[in-house]
Amino acid sequence: MGFLDFCCCLAGELSSTAQNGDSLWGTLLAQALPLFILGSGGFNVIPWGDREAGSSNPFTDAPHTGITRRYEFNISRGIIAPDGYQKEVLLVNDQFPGPLVEANWGDYIEVKVTNSINDGPPEGTAIHWHGFLQTGTPWMDGVPGVSQCPIAPGKSFTYKFRAELYGSSWYHSHYSAQYSGGLYGPMVIYGPRNLNYDIDLGPIMVNDWSHRNYYAVVQEIMGPDSNGLTYTDNNLINGKMNFDCSTLDADDETPCTDNAGLSKFIFRPGKTHRLRFINSGAEGTQRISIDEHNMTVIANDFVPIKPYDTQVITLGVGQRTDVLVHAHADAGSAFWLRANITSCSYTKQPLALAAIYYQGADNTSVPTSTPWDIPDPGTCENDDLALTVPYYPIALPEPSWTQHMDVSAYINSSGSLLWEFGGVAARVDYNNPTLLQARKQGGFQYKAESNLINYGTNSSIRIIINNPAESPHPVHAHGLNMYVLAAGQGNYTENSLSRLNTKNPMRRDVQMVAAKGHLVVQLDASKSPGIWPFHCHVAWHASAGFFSQMIFKPDELLTPQYDIPHDVSQTCRDWAEFTNGVVPDQIDSGLKARAEIVKQERSATLLR
């Protein structure tokens, strides 16, 4: 059976429920998004007033709407078949991908998260709100071992934070590599437009997909004689794709359906559509295109940029790109939307397809469109930085601190490959998060394995990353956006200062550093007191130690303004009670200790 034979059946053999639980993503029932959420009483008042894209600094000029958008998440296990291969996954409100969190720029967002992963075995969890600045609320960042303890099974925790930026993002578990097992969903913050459009088709999440449980993959990566590489099985668009079940091992008796069903979208002829692409995968770098259609890029991550046209966009894990597409074809036409995992990732079936139907088309017909002839360059880099110019320019100050954070790897005594970032393979302690330690101890003394760098009062920090490895890395900064000054092939040295773009450089919260390449970024920490992760967003790399922590404004962090709320501390009391009776088999995050040593360390934590 050829690829097109099994991938292109648009009728779909599985029900939406069997494929994605209660989720409607990728179905024709998914609703287009509004320009903004209407105010109380339905009055059509623009929530951000007269603020326009490019007219004010989005980092300092967010409106205060006085409105809180409230959500409730229940995290549980379930069995679905996103690509026809049935497996146990983690669901948000019985949905994969999870439900949309939406708000207007300046709103507060409140999400009560209940951990119902009570069996099979029980697990902790914590939700990270990717790209949100968390100004004044670093304990709401959702990173166990840093800003909180995991939410224990059977317990709840309520996150509340402000939508200080606008655009497209996502939420995902930050517990181990848990989100690669299904625990993620989209976020949209409505704000000013830098280019007009007619229809917002909403989030389009693309991700590599493994038929194994996420923890089995972590065990393989962290096990003896690992080379740090693993293959995923497929690629999904909004949680859907087909899989060739005939390629399964003969002894694999898991139920598998060849033509599970693909995602579908509707274009209206003559109209301009906004598509919000999100790479929600574990490790695959994605190249996304629409046959015979140009895309106008208008935003990267939470940063509106000066529009430019392209046929292909490249997204590393965690990155988002918003594009506009003009529907120039005739009514009744049909085209393929393609997401292809690049040659520098490892996936058995790298190409995902979704169908775009123009109004009037038979939505079970198979598109016959032609893909763009643009070969994969094999470097897994983002678009040329010269193309990506922020719509609102922000002056770049001279750095007061320069930090080198080179990438390396080594084999530890148990035979596992660990990643080092800045010379350290990181390990975090879920029972004793660094932010809570700082408040409890009144200072900042940590073990070297926490890979924590105290930047003191420095507010402008330049970080130089050289990556001699064969693998590219999407590097993610929490709590702020990075100014991307340089990215490319080979090492970067201090003699290369002339290559830095210091005039309105691209800003985003994830940026690719190429294999055998370099990345230079600058951070403005003036408004970001806290302890913030800085890490590779490839789930397996972060699990294997590619993780660091940054302390900004430590003196401010110890003032009463940053007293840890009681319910944040309660996560640690609940987690301590849970781990006193059950020792989670936490082998990732650089952990190299035997289970009994881990238990001794946790027991000691309980006694403090």
Question: What would your notes on this structure say?
Answer:
11% of the residues lie in helices and 32% in strands. The protein is mostly beta strands and 608 residues long. The chain has a domain at 401-564: Immunoglobulin-like (Sandwich), CATH 2.60.40. Strand 21 and strand 22 (417-421) form a beta hairpin. The model is unreliable at 590-608 (pLDDT under 50). It has helices spanning 3-7, 16-20, 214-222, 434-441, 539-543, 554-557, 566-581, 595-607, and strands at residues 68-80, 87-92, 101-104, 108-115, 127-129, 156-162, 167-173, 184-190, 199-209, 234-237, 263-267, 272-279, 286-290, 295-300, 303-310, 313-315, 320-326, 334-341, 351-358, 401-404, 407-411, 417-421, 452-454, 460-467, 473-477, 482-489, 506-508, 510-513, 517-524, 530-536, 547-552.
Which terms would index this structure?
single chain, mainly beta, Immunoglobulin-like, six-stranded mixed beta sheet, five-stranded mixed beta sheet, 8 helices, 31 strands, globular
